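Lest this sound abstract, we think one record worth quoting, the chain in one-letter code, the fold tokenised, each line plainly labelled:

>
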Amino acid sequence: MFRRIVLFGVILMLLPIATKAQEWMVVHRQALDAQWSLPIAVDSVLRGTLTADGSQLLITQRDGFVVPMDKEDVDSLTLDDLAEGEAKDKYQVFQLFVYTEDGRDIVSREEYIPCYIGLNGAGSYGSRWAHAGIRGRGNSTFLWYDKKPYRIKLDKKQKMLGLDRAKSWVLLANFRDITDMMNTYGFELGRMMGLPYTNHTRYVELFVNNNYLGLYQLTEQVQQGENRVAVSDERGILLTLDVDDGPNEAPSATNNFWTKGYNMPAAVKYPDDELLTDARLDSIRNVFGQLEAAIKAKDYAKASTLLDMESMARYLIIQELVYNVELSAPRSVFLHKDGDGPWVLGPLWDFDAGFDFDWSNMYAGHTFFSNYRETVMGTNPVRRNGNYSYVPQFFTDLFGTREFVELYKQTWAMYADSIVSRPWAEVERYVDGLRRGAIQREEQQWRIRGKSFDTELQKMHVWLENRARFLDDLVKNIPVPEDVKPIVDEQVCGTINQHVTMNYWNGYHQNTQVKVNRARVLELLGVDDSSFEENLMTIVPLKTDGTEGQNGTNGVFGGWFGANGNPGAYAQGHVYIEVFDDLFNWDCGLYQENCYDEEHTVVMQYQYPVNGKRLKVNVRVHFTITSGWW
């Protein structure tokens, strides 16, 4: 069924038409050397008019929402059946049209603006015309870049381009990533390795209020739901470890906390705010704390009942392969749990901070792929001897157990031969779709000086192949530890007092260190120097109540301490201690904007396992800050 409606004269009236629900009015538009079709459900249209000067076509919906289009962009109006085709080409680029209420700009990440969306399924999938809301999303990607990511929330659950029914959808701008393929590669790799609830990719060209915004990646919102993270409504948990959602960056949120064992910033994504009572939040913290305690105790047997170890091994392999430094913050690390079942890592999210991104020009740069030999966790992850020595020990302490290291090596060996080639084959299919015109229009819309899609894509492929070969040797050579007794008890063996004077004017760059007597520490621990194993030693900052705080420094160990002596975030810190390779000579410094002539007493704690007991030695450091010239 195909009927043409000719545009002529000053006013065009589209009277109500008796039609089947699947019939659509299709507006053909020509621009940027391409033609797109905007589908509009016929049974939602009240009338169409031309403005008095004949410059615009106004399509008025039954609820009063008006879709305006410049007449010069409209090639024709047809009435057509846009049912799904038999051959579904998910690799092509589709078109998504968004019309906001009163043409309002999308400037908020909190407030949804009412809108209509028109999604052209291009014969492969059903087209959509639906009422929705749209807002900005993301953190750095929304704040730093002109091309913004968005979140769309439909009024009713619907399929989108063959993806399962839901209300919430994400439009990733991928502005930092010239290839537009980093998230796609990550998702395809996760699906190949069997991580549950891994996202899918559909590429769309986005129009907002008739303005062409370029190429976007349409994918699922990470959330609980029957077609998303399908944990139960009653006892399911979806958790994220994320600095931006945690207590420091989101202090007014009621869904976040510091984790009990490793002091990581966490936020509960499900249960949502309506279901998340204070008691439920505390319960989730305690349940996650049980897992942390088992990992920290090197109790693999217990930890493996609380955590799906295969998902942990696969998740860490993926993060290390793409050199995703977000693991170190942490950011965008999702875990889910259903009832009494184990915690499972995933879904995967956010890969455009990987691939050796050049953070020295993070606000405006688009440089990746310089060095394939850098690591997040290191050649010996339990020592965190990579480029991000402060990666939370939640991800690395398991490498202190023989069972996990063997599982990690076995998992790598299972996928090593195809870890690049299989996901990349899918990437190339999407690339073929982009090359039918969309990527050229994207490059025209968002000109990045000195960068081209083809060049960056080739760099990405070469970098991945080189990195896979590099990691093959690295994984094979990760040390396999001997069997260790799980920690079942702990004891504070003594305290060492230190006094250090720091010069205010030297700020972060002091001429002195905190020098701890190694022999005295071992004496208090009751450990002979010949049997001491440095890789088993941990150093943690203590709060004034004696509990452990978080390491907010770039060191393997350390802490930023506030005015009250408690470890916390850099921004509120007065003094810091930072420990790198030498466990007994600590760097120190101060934040000049936060302190002047002051004195601070802070506590760091050595922890060392011996025969199933965690032995501890406190080091109390008294800092005197002077403002004299030395």
Q: What stands out?
A: The longest helix spans residues 453-476. Confidence is low (pLDDT under 50) at residues 1-20. Residues 489-626 form a domain with the Immunoglobulin-like fold (CATH 2.60.40). The first strand starts at residue 2 and ends at 5.
